[in-house]
Amino acid sequence: GGFIYDEKPTGGAFPMEAEAAAWVHHGAFSFYGTFGVVEGTTNDAWSFFQLREHWFMWQQHPDSPDGLFVRAGRFMPVYGLRFAEHNDFTREYGQTPLYGETYGVAVEYVDPKWEVHATGFLHDPLQFSAENGNGGALYAEARLAKVVSVGVEGRFAKSDVDERTAGGVTAKYWIAPGHLLFQLEGQAIHQTFSAGGNRDQLVSYLMASWFLHPGWMLDFGLSQFDQDIHVKDIDLEAFDANLHWFATSHWELLLTNRVQTIALGSGGGTSGYALVQFLYRL
């Protein structure tokens, strides 16, 4: 089990969330679920109960991370690198946004040298979700060597207001002597609106993680998002520097910093923040 306390901007406010996670398994079958409450925009302290993730899974080899997996329930369709930091642009403006869980069925195969994930999904008509469309996602990754892997991704979703077709690539490179991990994802998105019109978007993220000492990790990130490649000076860039101290397997101290620009400063003002976070995991 686990516990998370997070925030979700809604309607100009910053409601809070508290939830617990549980996982049970028997043989080849398992169930995972998160159960929690979310503070809404009303005066109620905690306005509604939610089941953000809940799914059943069958796996071919219960005692191995490899083989065939079949999942059904409410979860995030597998697509791209899925960084834990939900404000990385490939998540925030790409196809794996925070609270983007849907109801779906996924067929997945994992091998030491490659893996593939295919998901068909429907939007949730009852609970809040950042994904209001129905569609499918495909992600495949090949590990070409012990230090290199590359992936390809494709996704389609159609809702009452728009239709999105997306594709992209991922890459990872590990430099053992320097304890450096580079990770890259780039997405191209074509969006057509039901009311008329369309746009083409590009979003990417490059992260370099340096494991400088046992228990210490330093991240440098570069985000890019062009919300319409045909309109000048509306692209966004973000530069991140995050220092992690994993005191134990349960305790983490995090210093996270970001500077964000519009068209590298020529399209608008520059903003930024610095946050210190203390994280505890059960």
Structure description:
This protein is mainly beta and 282 residues long. Helices cover 1% and strands 62% of the residues. It has one helix at residues 89-92, and strands spanning 2-7, 16-26, 29-38, 48-50, 54-59, 67-75, 102-111, 114-122, 134-145, 148-158, 162-175, 180-193, 198-213, 216-226, 236-246, 251-262, 271-280. The chain has a 17-stranded antiparallel β-sheet that branches. The longest helix has 4 residues, at 89-92. The N and C termini lie close together (7 Å). Mean pLDDT is 90; it is low at 1-14.
List the helices and strands and how they pair.
Layout: E1 2-7, E2 16-26, E3 29-38, E4 48-50, E5 54-59, E6 67-75, H1 89-92, E7 102-111, E8 114-122, E9 134-145, E10 148-158, E11 162-175, E12 180-193, E13 198-213, E14 216-226, E15 236-246, E16 251-262, E17 271-280
Antiparallel strand pairs: 1-2, 2-3, 3-4, 3-5, 5-6, 6-7, 7-8, 8-9, 9-10, 10-11, 11-12, 12-13, 13-14, 14-15, 15-16, 16-17
